Amino acid sequence: MKKILIIALALVMVFSLTACGGNNAGDDAAAPPDKEAPADNQTEPAGSPSEAYSKYIDVKSAAYERLSTKIGEHDELALTAGLALLPVVVVDMSLLPLTIIGVEGGEAALEMFGMQGVSVDKDGDVYTVTYEDEEGNKITQTCEFDAKTDSMRSVVSDGSKDSIVFEYVNTGDGYASQYTLYNEEDGQYTLITSFFNETDFVGFGMQTVKSEPDSIFGDTGLGPDFIKNDEAYYMLEGDEMTIFMDGETKTY
């Protein structure tokens, strides 16, 4: 459990540092959206993609810590629910380029993580980050960001298949998100769903699906039941935790 929290803390530190740099960016990619009244569903106005994503990660990290702390109160859950939730944190490491979109000098920051030849292009509301990984594979990551609904869609591809599709949307007092990861071995997908706020609710769902789910981009009407499925989900509402695993529901 401690290892999981260390990974989460490291991610938060990286995201926080890059977000600070975004406030000083002078190029077009860093410019804030037109000054207009924010949508009623927003907890606060969204800025550049990197700032919006960093805010999402901050809230998600705090929500994950609340759930992890509750799990830690029950020794029998450490090697079941604790380890099962590890992908919820680790998956964000594959989306690191999102933290530099709109950040001056962000390309150089990514090279510290083994990404070479990093470039960022912008076409309307869609940003494209390209780079080569340590094995010389060319990776492309797109990011579509809608400031009015504070929602994002990002796709990571190696040129042959979309390996990760990530989406989040601001639901008013929190966020809903989904990560779709392609499994080369069986051609299926791992779907991680999330719904959390800054105070009293956090939920994560995990399941295997045969095809990519419907998009949630811009869908501000999602609720806590979004994370429920027939395979596994973990919820903390107030001080009550509900875990569904192996066809059985337990409350703590």
Short description:
By secondary structure, this protein is of the alpha+beta class.
Your description of this structure?
It is a single chain. With 252 residues, the chain is α+β, with helices and mostly antiparallel strands. The protein has one domain. The protein has 5 helices and 11 strands, in the order αααααβββββββββββ. An 11-stranded antiparallel sheet has the order 1-2-3-4-5-6-7-8-9-10-11. Strand 9 and strand 10 form a beta hairpin. The longest helix has 24 residues. It is globular and about 50 Å long.
What's the alpha carbon Rg, rounded to whole Å? 18 Å
Share of helix, binned: 25-40%
Reading the helices and strands in chain order gives: HHHHHEEEEEEEEEEE
Number of helices, where a helix is a run of at least 4 consecutive DSSP H or I residues: 5
- Low-pLDDT sequence parts: 1-43
Q: Specify the overall morphology.
A: globular
Strand arrangement in the largest pleated sheet:
1-2-3-4-5-6-7-8-9-10-11
**Residue share in β-strands:** 25-35%
- Supply the helix-strand structural class: alpha+beta
Q: What number is the mean pLDDT?
A: 83
How far do the termini sit from each other?
18 Å
Strand tally is 11
Oligomeric state of the chains?
single chain
For the largest beta-sheet, the strand count, sense and barrel status come to: 11 strands, antiparallel
How many domains, in number, for the residues? 1
Give me some keywords for this one.
252 residues; alpha+beta; eleven-stranded antiparallel beta sheet; globular; disordered N terminus
